[in-house]
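The material for today's practical consists of a large collection of protein records. Backbone structure tokens are a discrete shorthand for how the chain folds in space. An example says more than a description, so a record of this kind follows:
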Amino acid sequence: MPAARLTHFLCLPLITKHSKPQLQLSLQRFATTAMEKYEVPPKAIRPMGTIHLTLGVMQLTTEEQVEAASNFLRSLDLPQMLKSVPQREFVHPNITEPSDNSSTNHVSSNTGAKPSVKEAAISEAAGSDESPPPLKVSMSGLESMHTPSKTSILYTSPKDSTSRLYAFASSLRDAFLSVDLLVPEKRPLLLHATIVNTLYAKTKGRAKGTGHGKDNHGIGKFDATFLLEEFQDFEWASDFCVERVSICQMGAKKEIVDGVLVNEEYVEVASVPLP
């Protein structure tokens, strides 16, 4: 008996008023280079409207299940969850410390150092009734989900100076897992924004899919070694706030103007703003 299909996912959308113009320019630049220099199929490059951080996938096959998941999201005290996460004790697992001669994205491991103004403000908010500071992130670099010479997915990783993002995202995922609203996942959470996924570049006659799961087929894997090298320090967007937590439907909705596909976006069935 086939497993139930994936229908929704829990995520942190990354398209905001501040990030949108940055991502629009960076994705255009990347697409031009990737297609012309490395022959990456246009459909493999993800549209700007689909950029997000997935926290987990769902199998919600009835309206009652969708409503239950939506109500659970609305019931969470997100400001308190954000205030409760440890500060500067978590670093995204796929972020490596820079070399001694580089200060880019460096998070100091000196716990005895005097806290910055930002850290002091976060600590003070955690112990009061005040809302926590906004969750501000940047995205740079390009990584492969598989061996670079044989991969189908390329992504960029989010980084935040206070290291709250990964701990907050993990607490959200754990909350939904505790009430069986997410499909269990044995692998640790990997926060990533997909930039290239060849599963969307389907060849003629291939089955239609959503880009998730084993029933999807695309052009297969390709050698991204030199593409990764060229964009290893590329800045996609910087200093923008994560504004909400959402539950979205699988399968991005296409926006077509005068017969031309101009964007794709996931439909949000529930969304709660972050402070």
Q: What stands out?
A: Residues 89-123, 205-217 have pLDDT under 50 and may be disordered.
